[in-house]
Amino acid sequence: MSSPWTELDRSIGRRVGAAISQALDNIAPSNGADGPTAVIYLDDRVTAKDTTP
């Protein structure tokens, strides 16, 4: 049986899963349900080098 998922799909899934796991490792528990909501930004854009002389 063939999978509907391509290797690219699986790679993206692994990358997203790793990013979420890393972000969740850095969350401090709050004292109640009224605490701040965790927001996870996934941004893999390449940063441009500063070419200012």
Report what the structure shows:
- The protein has one helix at residues 7-25.
- The chain has 53 residues and is mainly alpha-helical.
- It is flat and about 45 Å long.
- The model has no long low-confidence stretch (mean pLDDT 76).
The helix content is: 25-40%
Output the structural class: mainly alpha
Distance separating the two termini: 58 Å
Strand content: under 5%
| Overall residue-averaged pLDDT value | 76
Total strand segments: 0
Poorly predicted runs: none
Helix-strand topology string: H
Number of helices, where a helix is a run of at least 4 consecutive DSSP H or I residues:
1
Name the overall outline: flat
Short description:
The protein has one helix at 7-25.
Chart the SSEs and their pairings.
Layout: H1 7-25
Tags for this model:
53 residues
